[in-house]
Design a protein that fits this description.
Length: 248
């Protein structure tokens, strides 16, 4: 292949990739793209090494890619009126953290504090989650935290089936963009919504499941752990398995 054909092929692949993610335009600076192509043309060992190390393909060379894709997704959600949760919410809680995160924590839906602050897991359950993350030797900013539904269900009730069905595609897209190495689903609602099973969390937790090629570890929801402190060690055990998986 001559250089021109190679470049066209690379661009075609990149555009198809972005298209699958819902993009209508390329969210990278054109110079950046050429730097990558140039590096690849030279057979840059560094590029190849990094790609094989993180298994994320060419997007690993586009540091802003995931951030732009997440921003685009947030824009697409807009002032969402897709389900009845929009009536009582103060804010949409999109999710936060490192767009390149290796671990993604997924909860059920915002509570009162999250609704006010427009940030996930900032109330009492959030403090417990944050302290767990720190005890694992990570920083909260290093992981990504999201929920199945992005708006607070009234009186902190569980999200209903129709609300989950409307909102789940957004968390699915967040996962697709971030491509974490491990997902931790917090509690029954998140686990059932992602794995499409109905097994009680007490039976399913502690084992890895496959979510579209990504290992997913279900564990107890931090709000449950606040009420059942004796079960904290079980979540600790589950998280040790997650750390082990990351090492591999
Ligand atoms: N519980 C959740 O499931 N998510 C939050 O963001 C806060 C509490």
């Amino acid at each position: 292949m001559n250089n021109k054909t190679e470049i066209v092929e690379e661009l075609k692949k990149a555009m198809e990739f972005y298209q699958e993610l819902g993009f209508k335009y390329l969210p990278v600076k054109i110079e950046q793209k050429f730097i990558i192509l140039e590096a690849r043309k030279r057979g840059s060992a560094e590029v190849e090494k990094r790609e094989s190390e993180n298994g994320r393909g060419m997007t690993s060379e586009l540091p802003d890619f995931r951030t732009s894709a997440l921003k685009s997704l947030r824009d697409e959600i807009g002032d969402c009126q897709r389900c009845k949760l929009c009536k009582n919410r103060k804010n949409i809680v999109f999710g936060e953290g490192q767009a390149e995160a290796k671990i993604m924590f997924i909860g059920e839906g915002p509570g009162r504090d999250e609704d006010i602050q427009a940030r996930p897991f900032v109330g009492e359950a959030g403090k417990l989650l944050t302290s767990l993350i720190i005890k694992l030797g990570l920083k909260r900013e290093e992981v990504y935290i999201a929920n199945i539904v992005k708006c607070r269900p009234p009186n902190n009730r569980e999200p209903e089936e129709d609300e989950i069905i409307m909102c789940r595609p957004f968390v699915e897209r967040q996962i697709e963009i971030i491509k974490p190495k491990v997902i931790v689903s917090l509690g029954k609602v998140a686990t059932h919504a992602l794995l499409k099973v109905k097994t009680p969390i007490s039976k399913i937790r502690g084992n890895f499941f496959d979510y579209r090629g990504i290992p997913l570890m279900p564990t107890f929801h931090p709000a449950y752990l606040l009420r059942n402190k004796k079960d904290k060690w079980l979540t600790w055990d589950d998280m040790q398995k997650v750390l082990e998986k990351l090492k591999n």
